[in-house]
Amino acid sequence: MSERVTIKSIARDLGISHMTVSRALSGHPSVLKETREAVQNRARELGYVKHAAANVMRGQTTRIVGLLLPNIVNEFYARFANTMALACEAQSLQLIIHLTGDEAGAERQALARLNEVQAQGVVMVPVPGSDGAMTLKPRPMSVVQLIRQSGADAAPTILVDDDQALQGAVAHLAEKGHRAIAYIGADSRLSSGQSRLASFRAGLERAGVAERPELLFTGTPTAEIGAQRMRQVLGDGAATALVCGGVEISNGALSAMMAAGVSPTGPFDLVGYGDPSFYAWIGGGLTTIGVPVERLAHKAVELMVAASPPPRIHRFEAALIVRPGSPPG
Amino acid sequence: MSERVTIKSIARDLGISHMTVSRALSGHPSVLKETREAVQNRARELGYVKHAAANVMRGQTTRIVGLLLPNIVNEFYARFANTMALACEAQSLQLIIHLTGDEAGAERQALARLNEVQAQGVVMVPVPGSDGAMTLKPRPMSVVQLIRQSGADAAPTILVDDDQALQGAVAHLAEKGHRAIAYIGADSRLSSGQSRLASFRAGLERAGVAERPELLFTGTPTAEIGAQRMRQVLGDGAATALVCGGVEISNGALSAMMAAGVSPTGPFDLVGYGDPSFYAWIGGGLTTIGVPVERLAHKAVELMVAASPPPRIHRFEAALIVRPGSPPG
DNA sequence: GTGAAAGCGCTAACAA
DNA sequence: TTGTTAGCGCTTTCAC
Question: Do you know which PANTHER family this protein is assigned to (chains A, B) (predicted)?
C-alpha cells in the first residue's frame, strides 16, 4: 500500500512547487517544456490520478448525473438506460443508477444521495403518488421527469403521446371482429394512467364498440398486477381481446397468458405496450404500441445538461405496430 | 438561487460555532439537547445537504462503486445490474454504470473515471483481450472480475461453470437424433471461449457424435457475430442443430433464426445460452443453458465490499434447462 | 517561469 | 458543552 500520489507528493519528489506540477499537468502554457515533460513522466510512473473531490470542493461541478428507474430488467427501461449511458459516456458524464421499485422512500433517498454527491442532474421516472423532485428544497440539480408527470413539479417532462396509438389499437381489434375488449392500465394516481384509460375509451367509442366497465382494470403499474388481472380476464372468459396500458403491465399480462398456455396472437388478441425485441417473435409476432425509447433518452440527456431548461412538456408519439400473429389455421 | 447551505452558514445563522453544528448534525453526544434540536430544525428548514466531497477529501471512503458491462440491454446483464443495484441500495452504496461495448478504450476510461471519484470498488466484465484492471497501477479500488478472466490479473473472479451444461446440451441434441451439431462461441482470446469450445467438443465425443470442424464458429462474443454465423449455418444447411456459447451470441443467433422464419424448436434445434424470461415463450419453449445470475450478483457485491478478498476464482454452476419446444406435428 | 497563500466543506484534536 | 485550529487536494490570485 503506497501513499496516495498527489501533486504535492510529485512536487516533493521532483523538488519543485506543487503549483508547477499542477500547471504542468493541466497543460498551462507558462511552464518550461522540460519541466512539464519531467512532471508528466513522473506522474505517469507514479500512477497519479486527479482527485475529483478536490475539484468539486472548489465549486467545480461534478460530471455525475443520476437515473432513477423502477427497475432495469424491463427491456423498455433497459434500453433507455443503455442509450442514456452511451450518451453520457459521450459527454464524459458518469451515470449513477438508482432503482426505486416505484417506492417513495427509495426515491427520496436516491435523490438525497445524488444531492450529496453534487450530481449535476437527474432523470427520473417519478414514483406513483410522490411529489417528485419537490422534496428537493435547494435544487442545484436539474431534474428531468420521464414518462410520468408528478405533482405540481415544475421540471421539464418527457411524455409519450400514445393517444392515437391506443385508439388505433382498439380500432385494430374492432376490425378483427372483437366486441369485448378488456384494458389493464395504471390507476388515476398517474397522469399517464388517466390519459391512457381515456384514450382507450375514446377508441372504443370511435370504433363503435360498447364499453364494458367490468373489463376495465387499473392498479399499480407492475408486472404482478398485469399478470393478476390477465388471469382474471382469462378466467371469467368475458373478453376476447385486451389492450395493455404500460410496459410493466404488458410484460406481466403476457407472462400470465403464456403460463396459461393461451396464445396472445391466437383467437384471444393481446395488444402489448412497448416493444422489446422478443415481442416480434411471440406466436408469429405480437401487435404492440411502440415507444421511441432511444429518442426519449437522447432528449432526456439533452434537457439535463441544458443550462436551465424551461419546465416544458416534451411529447414523443407512440405508434401501433401491427404484426401478423399466428397464421390463421 | 440561494447560497449553498453549509454548516458554517447555519452556524452564522444561529450565532454559534460551525463545530457545534457539525456535532449536532452527526449526533455527537456532548451537545445540549436544545442546541441540537435548534440546529437540526434550522438545517431542515434551510435544506442542508451534507457535502460528500468534503468527507472524501478527509480520507473518508466514498460509498460509490462501479459496474462495467458490455451493454445493459441483454437480459443477462440487465438482471445482473438489477440485482446488484438492489444489493448496493441495501448497503447504501451508489452504483455507477459504465458501458464498455467490449471496447478496450472505453474500459480504460471508465476505470480511470472511477478512480478519480475514489470509487470503493468495481465489478467488471473484462473486455476481450484487455489486460483488465492491471492498468490500474495504484489500486485503491477493489476489483471483481465477472464472467471472464482477464490477463494475469490477481483480482477475485466470478466464473460460470458451464462444462456439464454444455456437454448436457450436446447429449440432449444427440438423443433427439442430431448428428450434425454446430457451435457458435467466443474465440480463444477469452478464457471462457476456450473452455466452452472444449466442453462442446467433449460433449460431442462423449455422445459419440463426430466433430465437424466446419460447423465450429468462434468470434467476438456479440449478437452481430451470433446472427451472422447463424445465417451462415442456416444457409449452407449442413447442420441440423446448434449450441450457443454465450449470452450475446445466443440472442443474435435466435434473432437471425426468427428473421429467417426458422423455428428454433422445430426440426432445427437451437440450444441457447442464458435464460431471459422470453426464452420460455419462444416456439413452445427454448432449451437453454441457465445461469444463476442473481447469485453471481450477490457474490460480486459481497466480494467487492470485503476488506481484501483473496484473488480466488468463484464458480457457479450453469444448468441445462430442457423445454418441450413445439409439439411434434 | 515559478512559488506562496488562501480557501472550497468538513471533522479530529486540542483548548477553554 | 462549546469553540478554535488545522488540513485533506486542488486551483485561482497575486507576488517574485
Answer: HTH-TYPE TRANSCRIPTIONAL REGULATOR GALS, LACI-RELATED TRANSCRIPTIONAL REPRESSOR
